[in-house]
Amino acid sequence: MILYLEAETDIPDLVIDFIEVRLKSGKVVSLNWDESGIERCPVNEYYAAYEGVYFDEEYANGRVGELEEMQVIHVEPYSDSGQTGFIRFKKMIFEDGGRMLTFSEPVWQTEAA
């Protein structure tokens, strides 16, 4: 499974360590991944592709249906500079064996805007 993320942030060196979601079953899992590719744009745009997505410790391949009514409940940001700021997920697209599942605004954002 691959997660494509489009976000807006004022943290110039943002890295997302993990994303915690509530699945449609009600179970809370941590989304982690094997590899990430991040693109930061000068106008506070953040794009990332996370390959090899896990639900906690198990690969999520073939399980995209479990995400259908998911809710993002926590995001763990990291910044080498220690900077904190605003993060807003604009779009999350999960690709799993040719099946696509898209979540568009509003997906998730920090309290302070």
Low-confidence stretches: none
Instruction: Tell the overall outline.
Output: globular
Averaged pLDDT: 92
How many domain modules? 1
Oligomer: single chain
What pattern of helices and strands is seen along the backbone?
EEEEEEEEEE
Which structural class matches the secondary elements? mainly beta
Provide the β-strand percentage band. Answer: over 45%
Largest sheet: 5 strands, antiparallel
- The number of helices is 0
Strand count = 10
User: How much helix is in the residues?
Assistant: under 10%
Task: Explain what this protein looks like in three dimensions.
The chain has 113 residues and is mainly beta. It is built from no helices and 10 strands. The protein has strands at 2-9, 14-22, 28-32, 35-40, 45-51, 54-55, 58-59, 71-79, 87-96, 99-109. The protein has a 5-stranded antiparallel sheet, with no helix packed on it. It has a 5-stranded antiparallel sheet with strand order 7-6-3-2-8, with no helix packed on it. It starts with a strand and ends with a strand.
